[in-house]
Amino acid sequence: MLKNETSTSTQSIEWKCLESKTEGKRLHYGRFVVSPFRRGQAGTVGTAMRRALPQEIGGTGITRAKFRGVVHEYSTITGLQETIHDASVNPKEIVLRSDSNDIQEAFSSATGPKEVTAGDTSLPPRVEAIDNSQYIATTTQPISPNIELEIERDCGYRIENLTRCGNGQFSIDAVFMPVRNVNYSIHLFGNGRATQEISFIEIWTNGSPTPHEALSEASEKLMDLSTPFSQVRCGDVSFLENNEDSSDSTRSPSLRLQFGNANEVEGKLLKNMFIDQLELPARAFNCLKRAEIYTIADLLNCSREDLSKLRNFGRKSVDQVSKALWDRFSKELPSNKLGINRWKR
């Protein structure tokens, strides 16, 4: 425990592995401690890691199976206990480890009668099966069914389009999520202003990455995701108001985002935001639609006087629109705009 406030503020955050064990070939567990955090920081880090570990860590899986001489997925092969559908789906459960992002091919072949497992699959050099005992099919006669398999690396999961299957080739819904579960807890230590937080993170994986490897990769992914925000350029940009010269050095500086002028970006956004987002009363909403005012940009082309000229649109409705604009978009209706004659009455 830290002795004083000075050492508390300068001590760097460190982590340590408290426990690491293999509960099975396809179930690895790791428990880590990270500290010290200022109050509130442990929750921020814990939440980010809990989302990044299952979603951002890539996995390797079998995405396609091909059988020679097979018409459709419910066909049968003499001597093969499973249907083609079952024999093509079972390989997706095989846990693979690979550092390659290329699409690779593997072949499963074994002479029966026997249980065909992951160990009977000929894998590319950069691919490894975590558990060779994982079941694929059973042959009940002395046959050697050859199954061609396609291997890919990705994140998350993928639902395949079954309409693209044919000629004995079947797509497989793949799950590229080697992290099975994540849990974290936060505990306080210290007193008064020196109170800090310590976080415990528990990770379960299928063994293709160890919990330590998954934690390290998730950290790198989070840093990569936040990198664009650190590359925002700051500069002195003057706002143009009432067509005045932008060279006026008394204007306030603003943030220039890399993807364009802030006013242009805002204008595009407002053109794609519909007045539904204002959550106006039905009376006011229907009046605006009858006047062909559909977006926030359309609405900002109207003054209070313009709106008050709409049929059945009284001062109360104008006030409701004005308040909703300010509350939700920090915008005010302009003082002077084109007359109402361009709308339907």
UniProtKB/TrEMBL annotation:
Record has Transferase as a keyword: yes
Record's keyword annotation contains rRNA processing: no
Catalysed reaction(s) here are: RNA(n) + a ribonucleoside 5'-triphosphate = RNA(n+1) + diphosphate
> Where does the UniProt entry say this protein principally localizes?
plastid
Q: Give compartment(s).
A: Plastid, Chloroplast
Q: Can you tell which superkingdom this protein's organism belongs to?
A: Eukaryota
Entry's transmembrane regions: none
Keywords, A to Z?
Chloroplast, DNA-directed RNA polymerase, Nucleotidyltransferase, Plastid, Transcription, Transferase
Q: Name one GO cellular component term.
A: chloroplast
**Residue ranges of the DNA-directed RNA polymerase RpoA/D/Rpb3-type domain?**
29-232
Q: Which terms under GO biological process does the entry name?
A: DNA-templated transcription
**E.C. numbers:** 2.7.7.6
Q: InterPro entries, alphabetically?
A: DNA-dir_RNA_pol_insert, DNA-dir_RNA_pol_RpoA/D/Rpb3, DNA-dir_RpoA, RBP11-like, RNAP_asu_C, RNApol_insert_sf
Alpha N-terminal domain (alpha-NTD): annotated span: 1-240
Recorded hits in Gene3D superfamilies, A to Z, give: 5' to 3' exonuclease, C-terminal subdomain (1.10.150.20), DNA-directed RNA polymerase, insert domain (2.170.120.12), RNA polymerase, RBP11-like subunit (3.30.1360.10)
NCBIfam families for this protein: rpoA (TIGR02027)
Q: Any domain commentary?
A: The N-terminal domain is essential for RNAP assembly and basal transcription, whereas the C-terminal domain is involved in interaction with transcriptional regulators and with upstream promoter elements.
* Family, as annotated: Belongs to the RNA polymerase alpha chain family.
What interactions and quaternary structure are annotated?
Answer: In plastids the minimal PEP RNA polymerase catalytic core is composed of four subunits: alpha, beta, beta', and beta''. When a (nuclear-encoded) sigma factor is associated with the core the holoenzyme is formed, which can initiate transcription.
Function of this protein?
DNA-dependent RNA polymerase catalyzes the transcription of DNA into RNA using the four ribonucleoside triphosphates as substrates.
Q: What is this protein called?
A: DNA-directed RNA polymerase subunit alpha
Q: Which organism is it from?
A: Adiantum aleuticum
Q: What is the lineage of its organism?
A: Eukaryota, Viridiplantae, Streptophyta, Embryophyta, Tracheophyta
Q: Supply the gene name.
A: rpoA
